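User: Could you check the structure of this?
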Amino acid sequence: MHLSRRLIGALAGAGALIAVPLVVWANVGAEAATDTLLSQGRPATASSEESAELGAGNAVDGDGTSRWGSEEGVDPQWIAVDLGESHAISRVRLRWETAYGKAYEIQTSPDGQGWTTIGATTAGDGGTDELTGLSGAGRFVRMYGTARGTKWGYSLFAFEVYGTGQDTAGDAPSARRPGRASQGVPVIASDVPRPSKSAAATRTAAPGGAGSGTGLADPGKKDIAMQLVSSAENSSLDWKAQYKYIEDIGDGRGFTGGIIGFCSGTGDMLDLVEAYTQRVPANPLAQYLPALRKVNGSASHAGLDGFPAAWAKAAADPQFTKAQDDERDRVYFNPAVAQAKADGVGVLGQFAYYDAMVMHGPGPDADSFGGIRKAALAKAKAPAQGGSESAYLTAFLDARATAMRTEAAHSDTSRVDTAQRQFLQQGNLDLHTPLTWKVYGETYRIG
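Assistant: Sure, the predicted structure tokens are below.
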């Protein structure tokens, strides 16, 4: 069995600014005694990053020496953090590096798309800004800078968001997430090595058609990426067969279902059903939303009698499969491709980032995507820094394999070594078909 790692929740995305009246800003030192730090260790994104080492996650990692830095000389710029669920926001603390914001807004959003301003200033002077007396709520919070205080960009040592309500980041189950079973075969979960299969068994699929996108986002390339991941996660190239899959595989995370292993115990299944219900209010799963909220953070099935049957019924609805696609893209695919493009890598590198994020999650710890990327950058420069793409991807795959081996269950690194590394050694940086690779001893082919 083979367990995947995924960070709980979603990455904040850019969105249109919704103008609202100016509210309170203060620069004070006192802290409220009744609120909770909600942002530390949560996923963060930004409008830009000055370099690979100055990523958005540095502003929420709790390390007072690391920092996020935006592109220099450009307004506006923003940094956003995903709190995992909606919270009432009471205050925000910004600890600036030399490059500070003179004018900026603090905004909240329920979905990372539409934003409401709950605090603002036009007289920032750097140092530490404490915005108190805020009144607003949201899952996503961002600093939206409109005027720089220096000729450089925006740079924060700390972006701290405080509020009330449960801080689910510390109470949810482990970020280790289950894989999915291919239809008609036993469930394969990712913390137990898969049984070896005969190399003589070869599965073949037609290549995806040409698309109008660029890089891995091209529809044809994206379909290849889904098949590559499915060969490791599902023992099948038919990734679309997984929309209807749901089962409790006994890993302490409740039900696992769908194309990326949404879990009732880790919040992302709740997010998915909420998103689906916004589109189709009278859907088969909507009645289970109160129960999903109650069991979030546990392995419990309380109130979920009949839920698997309802899931299978919902999977026949194109709106539900579309919701699964959208959550996959929002949480894993889009952030991975965006970061890869920022680092200057092509289609293979974009896939390597996506596959790593699917298994390890986009968090900052050593065996998550952020830590793997950091380890690679310590060994080789990314192409965006003037480095060799092949040398950097070699370092990234080395770091990925090292992270996998930190747990005995991940000691089989064939999804890296006899797939991605093989493509790299062949010089196939654009994932041109035909492609042939092995995972757990089984051969797969596209084209």
